[in-house]
Amino acid sequence: MDLLDCVLKGEIEGLDSKELAKLYEYDIFTLGEAADYIRKKYHSDKVFFNINRHINPTNICADVCKFCAFSASRKNPNPYDMSIEEVVEQCINAYNRGAKEVHIVSAHHPDHSYQYQLDMFRAIKDAVPLLHIKAMGAAEIDYLTRKFNVALEQVLHDLAQAGVDSLPGGGAEIFDEKVRKSLCHGKADANRWLEIHKKWHSMGRMSNATMLFGHIEERHHRIDHILRLRNTQTSLEQANNKQGGFNAFIPLLYQRYNNFLKAKEAPSGQEILKTIAIARILLQNIPHIKAYWASLSFNLAIVAQEFGANDMDGTIENESIQSAAGAKSKNGVTKDEMISQIKNAGFLPVERDSLYNEIKVYDETSKCW
Ligand code: V47
């Protein structure tokens, strides 16, 4: 049977990542049409976004990921470390400007105490109880368990108690062991990353999953990454866990400046859109595919909504990780701009909360916003 037909029917047993990478050999329109069919089945013409604020409390890091231009290094000799009060103040200001979510990820600061992390989240919840805290990538959690010798279950429990509502998808990079070693030797490996998310899901909680692509990996490494996420989500369904799981998959396009990774040529727009479409086709058990505009550029993220994606991420306000490596995303985007760009592309803008509950649909009856 035709490979794409098999995949669309979910019949991929016995096919490995190299065989499935042949999906890339279909032309972009065939893949786009298949992906669009699935996105329409789940989300019709809705494009989700949220009003959020990204905060990165410190860039001082004990790890050395070659692709990272954000952490303070000899290429970016600009170390900073925010106090808890500063972080809380930014959260209050963002909330007062309409943010529903704060996305907090940090470098692995060698001198922060275990308590510091928990105190930060408690202080945010005390100050702005209605602000959803999406924070702590799996690699940060792994760092805490190793540095302070605290069991994973305990760390996750403590974070949830302190106010963390959901986990972001960062730190996944590429799961393939060999590629991962060249990218970020010493950081949580693939199994650990997945274990952390699975444990969090077993607590009835949601998280996201990213994939960093467009650097030294091959197509089949991306497929392998996607399959490991698909299998993890399937095992959760089989365990009959009705509450926790992955909410969104986010392919992050590698930004190539100010870091230490010697990457191949940047992938073409066609290769990027095919990657997004294939993710939609293979990951039918993860509800949302996010075209993260800060990584893809706003225009391509909008086009990606025709190729399987159904989410743009949010207004962000202040972006530091992608922009440190060359992306033009430093200053976020306004809510009005987000809504009008989604509308102009012929989609229905839907403001969502962090867990994809709809807050407001910007249809023709809601002309003023
Ligand atoms: O894990 C670092 C990536 C991630 C580069 O969960 C880079 O909703 C491209 O995880 N080029 C952090 N990417 C960001 C992240 C994220 C972003 C938006 C939404 C969500 C979510 C999560 O940024 C890191 C790493 O994979 N990153 N350096 C770079 N040069």
TrEMBL record:
A Gene Ontology BP annotation from the UniProt entry: menaquinone biosynthetic process
EC number: 2.5.1.120
Pfam families xref list: CofH_C (PF19288), Radical_SAM (PF04055)
UniProt entry tagged with the keyword Iron: yes
Domain of life: Bacteria
Residues the record lists as binding S-adenosyl-L-methionine: F67, E173
Residues spanning the signal sequence: none
Binding-site list for [4Fe-4S] cluster: C61, C65, C68
InterPro entries, alphabetized: Aldolase_TIM, CofH/MnqC-like_C, F420, FO_synthase_su2, MqnE, rSAM, rSAM_sf
Catalyzed reactions per annotation: 3-[(1-carboxyvinyl)-oxy]benzoate + S-adenosyl-L-methionine + H2O = 6-amino-6-deoxyfutalosine + hydrogencarbonate + L-methionine + H(+)
Cofactor(s) required for function per UniProt: [4Fe-4S] cluster
Pathway: Quinol/quinone metabolism; menaquinone biosynthesis
Note accompanying the cofactor annotation: Binds 1 [4Fe-4S] cluster. The cluster is coordinated with 3 cysteines and an exchangeable S-adenosyl-L-methionine.
This protein's UniProt keywords: 4Fe-4S, Iron, Iron-sulfur, Menaquinone biosynthesis, Metal-binding, S-adenosyl-L-methionine, Transferase
PANTHER family: AMINODEOXYFUTALOSINE SYNTHASE, FO SYNTHASE (COFH)
Family: Belongs to the radical SAM superfamily. MqnE family.
HAMAP family: MqnE
NCBIfam families cross-referenced by the UniProt entry: CofH family radical SAM protein, mena_SCO4494, PRK08444.1
Function statement: Radical SAM enzyme that catalyzes the addition of the adenosyl radical to the double bond of 3-[(1-carboxyvinyl)oxy]benzoate, leading to aminodeoxyfutalosine (AFL), a key intermediate in the formation of menaquinone (MK, vitamin K2) from chorismate.
Name of this protein: Aminodeoxyfutalosine synthase
